[in-house]
Amino acid sequence: MKVLGYAGMVLTLLLVAVPVYFIVITSFKDRPDIFVSPATWWPPTWYPENYSYVTQEIPYWQYLRNSAIITLVTGSIKFVLGVSTAYALVFLRFPFKKLLFLVVIAALMVPNQITVISNYALMADYRNTFVGIILPLAGVAFGTFLMRNHFLSLPKEIVEAARMDGAGHLRLLFRVILPVSIPTMVAFAVITLVNEWNEYLWPFLMSDNAAVAPLPVGLTLLQNTEQGVNWGPVMAATLLTALPMLVVFLILQRQMIKGLTSGAVKG
Amino acid sequence: MGDFTRRGFIATGLAATAAVAAACAGSGSGGGASNSGNGGGGGDITLRFLSNHPGSSKATEQALIDEFQKANAGIKVELLDGGKNYEQVAQKFQTSLSGGEKPDIVVVSDVTWFNFALNKQIAPLDDLFAGAGLKPEEYVDSLLADTKFDGKHYAVPFARSTPLFYYNKDVWKKAGLEDRGPKDWDEFAQWASRIQEAIGGDKKALVIADGENYIDWAFEGWNWSKGGAYSDGWDLKFTSPETIAAANQLKDVIGKWGRVVTTPENDFGAGLAAATVQSTGSLKTITSTAKFELGTAFLPGPAGKSCPTGGAGVAVTEAISAERKAAAVKFIEFLTNTNNTSKFSQATGYMPVRKAAVDEPTMKAFIEKNPNFGTAVKQLPLTRSQDNARVFVPGGGEDIGKALQQIATGGDTAAILGALQKTIQGKIDSQIKPKLPK
């Protein structure tokens, strides 16, 4: 039984790791070495110039800065909105609460791409600015859903105890509820950050040049229509782009896994 | 915060909702305001040029823009990024038409321009040629004729390419063949078994693109050379006996000595095939990856009936002021004049769009140093405008590509072409015929 378990683990590891390994070594290959048959699993000649090509050909650092700004700001807004909306839906009483929640959930089912045209018409005056990119992305249904369900799962005794001690809403939120919800919050934060980092369609339509374009949009400058793509620099750029998110995940992974599996095991 | 009563809370909530609703209604009408901006008052005009920088040409485009601005006080040009390929720049253009400042000049490809022209989103340019000093007869005839509709031109050639026949000279020598391309596809079919033997192993004599990567473009010339066509004007010819025969030859050749792949230039450059049909734009890539001696030739077939045009031109948005349109055409004339098309062509590998460009001194020197590029340029006068079914029907190229891929990998030719004819005819009847001028 244990053997099967380990076999499954190794298989999954290979499925995920082999393409990633291939990306890493391709980023170090020179152009003629990339498309050979049979494929080479170790670069015949090391060609780290791909990395300097990426940072010189395109304004890479500017795109990185834009990506960081967009991701952090959008992520923060989404986080605050998500937590406060969830809090309101769980701990406040007001009419139409269930209806409001259903509307928020319905928004989860509408894919990004459908609202693009109407958003564009609305935000047209803010084209090529950070505000224009961030604002429509800042609406969050997923986070609300996640945090609301987590708050509902908190034992009522804690809330009652805090109320009896005379805690108002703010103190209840910051002193009692949030410290208990850290794993879920971290999960929410990581998923949001990664999604914002990889966002392509909306920044593409909204940005005109390197002033505000994030990395996924900027990297298209390395790709070509009829000439065929030079995969070495593209792989190098892919790795450089994935690195920050990888670091974030590595730092927060323990908390995140706890957050995603909380409630699965009682106590 | 503790004594924020429930009543107070609900009242605040209602007020906030009302405010948001009012704001949405207000900005909805405000957002519709179009290009008032720079046009008024006769000051500087700033044109907005939306481009996907075909052939990694952003630096070249910017250099040309700087020169234009120096020579034309009062007109500035802003270069906007349009994504990685022609489809993305068309998507961005389409979205930008829904509000705010629209781009004035946009790169449109052979398959995206017609939809914009039909829906009056790009402007007919003939009346503006004279004012900008643009002489249509100076352009390569087939390239300019490509974007003519209802007697008017809707785009000016910019980054144009054609398919080219690439072959591996080393394999050709090994197979004992003359160092030239086949004179038509029948001759290639005769040579193919010798080529296959010479290249040996799992490699193939011919590799061709799949449905997603423009097999419909590569096959268009092949079809013409055998007397077939995708369409003749608006009459579809998919089920004509010549087209069916050509498609069967495609199936035969690929089945016995060929392969359908996503990026034929990569397979060919890596030595996995002895020949391919691919864009002239891939020449730089193939030259840099090939470890063998590279040969190029015209597409096999009779002159004038074997090679389609391709690539992109530049168009002017319809919904901008007349003053901006005139300035835009002035810029377009500069962008594509003899010296500049020569510069652009040498930097990117696209074809020079003016007849005089081949005699321009730097171009002559470039062709001498790059004889394979010279082949492509010499093929240019022999090209023909593409069939309506591929370039004018929305999604036409993709439909044809899918069908051809099925045929090339062993499908029933007559049945597939019959179904394709029905699909395309349906699209024409429902989406195009109602909009055609009577």
What's the gist of this structure?
The complex is a heterodimer of chains A (267) and B (438). With 267 residues, chain A is mainly alpha-helical. Helix content of chain A is 71%, strand content 0%.
List keywords for this structure.
heterodimer; A: 267 residues; mainly alpha; MetI-like fold; 2 domains; 14 helices; B: 438 residues; alpha/beta; D-Maltodextrin-Binding Protein, domain 2; five-stranded mixed beta sheet; 19 helices; 48% helix; 15% strand; globular
Report the CATH C-level class of the largest domain in chain A: Mainly Alpha
Count of strand segments of chain B? 14
Given as residue ranges, the uncertain stretches of chain B (5+ residues, pLDDT < 50) are: 27-41
Q: DSSP strand (E) fraction of chain B?
A: 15-25%
Report the radius of gyration of chain B as a whole number of Å: 25 Å
CATH superfamily of the largest domain in chain B: Periplasmic binding protein-like II
User: What is the annotated CATH architecture of the largest domain in chain A?
Assistant: Orthogonal Bundle
Quaternary organisation = heterodimer
What is the C-alpha radius of gyration of chain A, as a whole number of Å? 23 Å
Q: So, the CATH homologous superfamily of the largest domain in chain A? A: MetI-like
Looking at CATH, which topology of the largest domain in chain A would you report?
A: MetI-like fold
Assign the structural class of chain B, choosing from mainly alpha, mainly beta, alpha/beta, alpha+beta, or little secondary structure.
alpha/beta
Number of helices of chain B: 19
N-end to C-end Cα span of chain A = 28 Å
Q: How many β strands of chain A by DSSP? A: 0
CATH architecture of the largest domain in chain B: 3-Layer(aba) Sandwich
- Helix residue percentage of chain A: over 70%
User: Mind describing the biggest β-sheet of chain A?
Assistant: none
